[in-house]
Amino acid sequence: MIRPLTILLTLLLSGCLAAQRPPRLSSPDENADGSYTFRYYAPDADTVLLHGEFLAAPQIMDRDADGVWTATVADIEPDIYPYFFEQDGVQLADPNNTHVFANERFKRSIVEVRGDGAQVHSLQDVPHGQVRYEYYPSATLDTTRRMLVYTPPGFEMNGNQRYPVLYLIHGGSDTEETWYQVGRANFIADNLIAAGQAEPMLIVMPYGNVRPAPMADFTRDVIDDIIPYIEANFPVVGDAEHRAVAGFSVGGGQTLNIGLMNTDKFAYVCSYAPWTRTEEFQRNFGDWEPDAAAINENLRLFTLSVGTDDFLYESVLQNIADFRAEGIELETHITDGGHTWMNCKKYLATTLRQIFQPAR
Amino acid sequence: MIRPLTILLTLLLSGCLAAQRPPRLSSPDENADGSYTFRYYAPDADTVLLHGEFLAAPQIMDRDADGVWTATVADIEPDIYPYFFEQDGVQLADPNNTHVFANERFKRSIVEVRGDGAQVHSLQDVPHGQVRYEYYPSATLDTTRRMLVYTPPGFEMNGNQRYPVLYLIHGGSDTEETWYQVGRANFIADNLIAAGQAEPMLIVMPYGNVRPAPMADFTRDVIDDIIPYIEANFPVVGDAEHRAVAGFSVGGGQTLNIGLMNTDKFAYVCSYAPWTRTEEFQRNFGDWEPDAAAINENLRLFTLSVGTDDFLYESVLQNIADFRAEGIELETHITDGGHTWMNCKKYLATTLRQIFQPAR
């Protein structure tokens, strides 16, 4: 007979855990009518606001007698959205939601509004690939760095199949985890591969920030460290026809620097809402006099994507015009919406359907 | 010549990003003298406190003219610690630190105080294994669940080597990521394997919470779903001599339920500061009349670990006495410290040195 110390533990718990932790809340919850309820415990708060990219404006939450603040939002378009609470002016992630937006400058939570659950980024009943953390030596940066690698369903490290590779770069204050945790690159790939709309591929998600090193060192890290590491350690095809590079915002600018300066190494360059106001971009493209014919010959696909509400919309239109003025062939994906991860997922899904396809 | 819209972007940035985001801060920073500095931007705050498990009491932070609050802490024993800020009564994770404590009920940040960087949990210059996210079907819970799987350096999915497996369970409000993000199970294994002190093994880190299902359903999920999935999809040895189960707090109680009720399936059962006030534990052990001789014969190792400052210390001492009163052979690891992840890492390092070793 193994007995716990019931009375003692009750006292200890009430004095210890209870004092350390608020009550367990379920937040967010999907309701039977498809609306979502957000909950936050703050008995001493004067006001609590819900901020979310599914809201046009912050929503005031309602307090109950136990100090739990609640907001219910209906008719949200199915997608994955960042949100956060604001208690008396202090912004914070949802304490009860384990899905956190991987970012260096803020903490946000993530809610998936599933709808019928058939979105391209949703966990569906299809074969699933794996996402793994890899630790690679960066000679460029003289350190060991972490990246995520997606391998498709049925992947065999020592099998006969050899795969193409997409190098996928996050935004400026994001991390190597953002394309997985927020962008759902793995489920988008799983679903498109299962539907026969994308080729089985590896997706390599490096950490694109190299502060305090100059940003151009990341380009060197990709070319000199990451690609050789991947090609030495995974069953991939190591030629331009089987390499793609894509990225969002600052990573979209890095994509242009990495891809267009190395069209002998990448046949697919897909830039999402690129941020191009960088010293590296100016050095590469400021006085650019490209051999457009050679670049067009090397590139199987060059795309620029942006939303009409993106604060970079005009800038990207200018990039598009400037590249075309140089005789560079490119495809544009102009969408609704802004500089958001909702759009990132759309751009990636479009890209995955296009790269590594039979020659046009 | 590709030119960005300099003036427009400057205006848009100042009106857009600047309004959305505080200035970039580096926090925490290790200083030349080995002290650590924490920074938090809150121009409107009256008071900001630093809470950390390296502090005996919260430390008041100092505000500078720009609204940046700073605290510097010296002489911290090298380890990995949870910490958080408290702005005017609101507790939140460090917005500038991407290392977040994976937990369902709070958001904390994590700081590694490296010292000479030679701690068993530190990233060292040794061969590194991989940690991968796996999605497995749980018939028990009728859903697809996520778990993390550590594979050791040199692991080959289709090679000749077959590995033993440790099933490692988190605490009550933690997640499947906590043993990786906070417990550093991968680096502890990398370092001990490199030193020849641990056998190459897989470490499977499932999600132990099954709310609203009864906790006992997790035991069924492990036995009926997780173990068959791992043994069908990884090169492992599927017998008791090559299976271990370990866990912390609520997971330490689950470890006793899973392991001691199934000594035909696990030869190694290692419970860290177990929480045993559960219906499942009462049902299994309340009127337990074990065949101690058979259990002792089956178990190669049974350990109970706890810290002398742990709020469960007396409870675990009672567990130890009760198991011994039933004739069950066990080894105890009594340490300093409390119910913390600093102790979790110590217990895991001790366990990894003991399991899957040649017969005693």
TrEMBL record, chains A, B:
Keywords recorded for this protein, A-Z: Signal
Protein origin, superkingdom: Bacteria
Signal sequence extent: 1-19
Record protein name field: Enterochelin esterase family protein
GO biological process: carbohydrate metabolic process
Gene3D superfamilies: alpha/beta hydrolase (3.40.50.1820), Immunoglobulins (2.60.40.10)
Annotated organism of origin: Neolewinella xylanilytica
Keyword Membrane: no
Domain Glycoside hydrolase family 13 N-terminal: 29-89
CDD domains linked: E_set_Esterase_like_N
GO molecular function: acyltransferase activity, transferring groups other than amino-acyl groups; hydrolase activity, hydrolyzing O-glycosyl compounds
Xref: PANTHER family: DIACYLGLYCEROL ACYLTRANSFERASE_MYCOLYLTRANSFERASE AG85A (PTHR48098:SF1), ENTEROCHELIN ESTERASE-RELATED (PTHR48098)
InterPro entries in the record: AB_hydrolase_fold, Esterase-like, Glyco_hydro_13_N, Ig-like_fold, Ig_E-set, Mycobacterial_A85_antigen
